[in-house]
TrEMBL record:
Biased amino acid composition, Basic residues: 54-64
Protein name per UniProt: YjzC family protein
Transmembrane regions listed in the UniProt entry: none
Pfam families (alphabetical): YjzC
Composition skew (Basic and acidic residues), residue ranges: 1-11, 36-53
Species this chain originates from: Paenibacillus antarcticus
Length: 64
């Protein structure tokens, strides 16, 4: 079993990290100016911009 990757407003953060709004993306639309938050383990996620969005951990890009 692994940790979940999508979080709803009010859920507790499983780890310290930077999280970004994600969701309601269609083939022709993208989120404009998504919210970003930095949370510590156990802090609750704030509300998203609309009910169809969730929070996901923002991963650092890999460099080669």
């Amino acid at each position: 079993m692994g940790e979940g990757t999508e979080f709803k407003p009010g859920d507790k953060a499983p780890n310290n990290g930077h999280y970004m709004e994600f969701g309601d993306i269609g083939l022709e639309t993208t989120i404009v100016d998504p919210k970003h938050v930095t949370l510590r383990k156990g802090e609750r996620f704030p509300d998203t911009s609309n009910k169809d969005r969730v929070w996901k951990k923002k991963h650092k890009g890999k460099s080669h």
